[in-house]
């Protein structure tokens, strides 16, 4: 996965990322005591999160600004991914609800590299059915789906009304302050449209496991 993702990033952003990739190894392999397999997982997570970040550039962002975001994403992995995090991730199950799951391929790969197990769902009805039969450590949902422009809230409200307190994150097109506040008011951890924030939120949610 590593080489293919890096090639994708370089083709898309070219020279603007040269310095970034020149220094990537510096923060991809921190973490004293890592075994080779853990370092490989960390490296794969870094590559996938970088790809997710450059595939979703902030509106109006220049290639240089996107390169800085990519560097910040790589630093986030270096700072947060430890052997303990990898062990916890390998025992975790996350439900991801999105009617276009291919849109989140890189974000999903970044967490799968650490061992997170994903179950995919494309509708609120299907997600609720899955939740009847399996316990999840976290739920990620988009916002609008087919006939329901607030499907993310529909699912969240149904869960909270039933007493289900599973950590819930909305990954959608907005991270405006008012949307963040509304999401938290309804009982979710938050909402974001940035891959690096999603990565951090999921690991934080999984860190609450006992």
Strand order of the largest sheet: 2-1-3-4-5
CATH-assigned homologous superfamily of the largest domain: Response regulator
User: Architecture of the largest domain in CATH?
Assistant: 3-Layer(aba) Sandwich
Biggest beta sheet attributes: 5 strands, parallel
Radius of gyration based on Cα positions: 17 Å
The total of beta strands comes to 5
Could you tell me the CATH topology label of the largest domain.
Rossmann fold
Strand content: 5-15%
Structural overview:
The chain has 210 residues and is an alpha/beta fold. The chain folds into two domains: 2-82; 86-206, 3-Layer(aba) Sandwich (Rossmann fold), CATH 3.40.50. The protein contains eleven helices and five strands, in the order ααααααβαβαβαβαβα. The chain has a five-stranded parallel beta sheet with strand order 2-1-3-4-5, with helices on both faces. The longest helix has 20 residues, at 36-55. Residues 25-30 have low confidence and may be disordered.
